Amino acid sequence: MAGANTIYGSGMLELGVTFSMEQLVIDNDIIAMEKKAMEGVLITGETLAADAIKEIGVGNDFLAHPSTMNNIELASDPMIFDRYMIGDWRAAGCKSAVDVAHDIVEDVMKNHVVKPIPADILDAMKVIVKKADDEFKKSRE
After folding, report:
1. Does the N-terminal or the C-terminal CB of the chain have fewer CB atoms within 10 Å?
2. Residue 65 lies in a domain
3. Helix and strand tally (H, E) in the chain?
4. Residue 136 lies in a domain
């Protein structure tokens, strides 16, 4: 990739006029896949699937081969986007990415507990904020 190190707009719709928690969850999944891709690809005899190529033959169908399914999550491991075959996806309820994201949003809203900031870190943050406030007030005199 080009080395970009800033990701902007997660959860935004309509150029930021609207925010969607479901879109945030989907964007988070895409960002995680991008980060995983940036780690690079593990190259081994197994991931190259040389044995599968010999077994199946060049130009034939590799998608249904067990080696493909065993290694498909190496490049990325999404939470939202599944890799089911269409029949399996239908049997699992045909949930769209938006429906899966909505389920995650509901679960987070219902069950997530924010861990309190440790007292020593909170105290250090307060010192920084007070110093900035004091410097700002002084600059306005």
Report:
1. C
2. yes
3. 7, 2
4. no
55 CB-near residues (< 8 Å, 6+ apart): 65
Q: What is the pLDDT of residue 4?
A: 66
- In this prediction, residue 3 carries a pLDDT of 65
Query: Is there a domain that residue 137 lies in?
Result: no
For residue 24, what are its two tokens? 């945030």
- For 87, the domain range is 12-114
CB–CB of 33/80 below 8 Å? no
The Cα–Cα gap between 39 and 43 comes to 12
Confirm if 22 and 98 have CB atoms less than 8 A apart: yes
Spatial separation of the C-alpha atoms in residues 57 and 63, rounded to whole Å: 13
Among 108, 109, 82, 110, which residue's Cα sits nearest to residue 96? 82
Domain count, the chain: 1
* Residues in CB range of 36: below 8 A, 6 or more apart: 75, 76, 77
As given in the structure block, the two tokens for residue 11 are 């959860």
- Which residues, 6+ apart, have CB-to-CB distance to 7 below 8 Å? 31, 34
pLDDT per position as a tens digit, 42-78: 888 888 888 888 888 878 888 878 888 778 777 777 8
